């Protein structure tokens, strides 16, 4: 989704469409994951051999993450690179190799996120133009509902071959309905890029948050007692 978002914003900027852009999608995914795994392995070695406070490890991990995201601009032509996927792969590799430290760092980042999420959602909400909310109307609601339907179908396909019961599969689809963080993080980027569609994209992202986050949370709270059961040892 992140790679496709980058490709579509490039089209909206007028960069045009070419087969090279299609080639960049798989290379962005593969190279991003590969570089992230290597970074995770290097950090694992570093944290095992050098005694550092967890606060210092958080700063190192943040610095590596910013470098990976910035490195995305260095790749041109058919060779793409997804910095955000690289960051995710770095965390996954560190979790797999050094779960003890990864758990402690996750707690540290969780504390940072308490303040960061307030700042993120407040700034996104403040950037919304109320005029576009009225202009969006039923069409934007239809887009959101359609996207949720496709997402639930995708979840159903992902769990189709598992041992989950029909009720548990349905709950998985319901649990993926609430949307907020990614929408808030990238919804304002087209506006920051100066695209004419920027205000409408931001409005759609905020509407998706306002609709799916509370309604999805309510659906989860009211459906899990009926759809899930606790296994008794």
Which radius of gyration do the C-alpha atoms yield?
A: 20 Å
Assembly category: single chain
Strand content: under 5%
**Mind describing the biggest β-sheet?**
none
Helix content: over 70%
Task: Report the strand count.
Answer: 0
Average pLDDT level: 85
In the predicted model, the low-confidence regions spanning at least 5 consecutive residues are none
What series of H and E elements makes up the topology?
HHHHHHHHHH
How many helices? The count is: 10
Global geometry: globular
**End-to-end CA span:** 40 Å
Which structural class best describes the helix and strand composition?
mainly alpha
Structure description:
Helix 2 (19-49) runs parallel beside helix 4 (83-97) and helix 4 runs antiparallel to helix 5. The longest helix has 31 residues, at 19-49. With 233 residues, the chain is an all-alpha fold. The radius of gyration is 20 Å and the shape is globular. The two termini are 40 Å apart. It contains ten helices and no strands. It has helices at residues 2-12, 19-49, 54-71, 83-97, 99-126, 130-158, 166-175, 181-186, 189-192, 198-227.
């Amino acid at each position: 989704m992140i790679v496709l978002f980058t490709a579509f914003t490039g089209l909206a900027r007028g960069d045009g469409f070419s087969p090279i852009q299609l080639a960049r999608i798989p290379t962005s995914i593969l190279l991003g994951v590969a570089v992230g795994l290597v970074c995770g392995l290097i950090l694992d070695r570093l944290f095992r051999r050098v005694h550092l406070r967890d606060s210092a490890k958080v700063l190192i991990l943040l610095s590596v993450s910013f470098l990976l995201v910035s490195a995305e601009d260095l790749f041109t032509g058919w060779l793409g690179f997804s910095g955000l996927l690289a960051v995710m792969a770095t965390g996954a590799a560190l979790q797999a190799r050094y779960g003890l430290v990864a758990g402690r760092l996750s707690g540290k980042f969780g504390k940072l996120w308490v303040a960061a999420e307030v700042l993120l959602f407040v700034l996104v909400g403040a950037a919304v133009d109320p005029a576009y909310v009225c202009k969006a109307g039923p069409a934007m609601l239809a887009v959101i509902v359609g996207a949720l339907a496709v997402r639930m179908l995708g979840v159903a396909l992902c769990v189709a071959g598992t041992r989950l019961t029909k009720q548990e599969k349905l709950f998985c689809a319901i649990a993926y309905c609430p949307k907020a963080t990614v929408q808030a993080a990238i919804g304002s980027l087209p506006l920051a890029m100066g695209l004419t569609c920027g205000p409408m994209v931001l409005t759609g992202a905020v509407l998706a948050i306002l609709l799916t986050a509370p309604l999805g949370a309510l659906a989860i709270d009211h459906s899990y007692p009926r759809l899930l059961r606790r296994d008794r040892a």
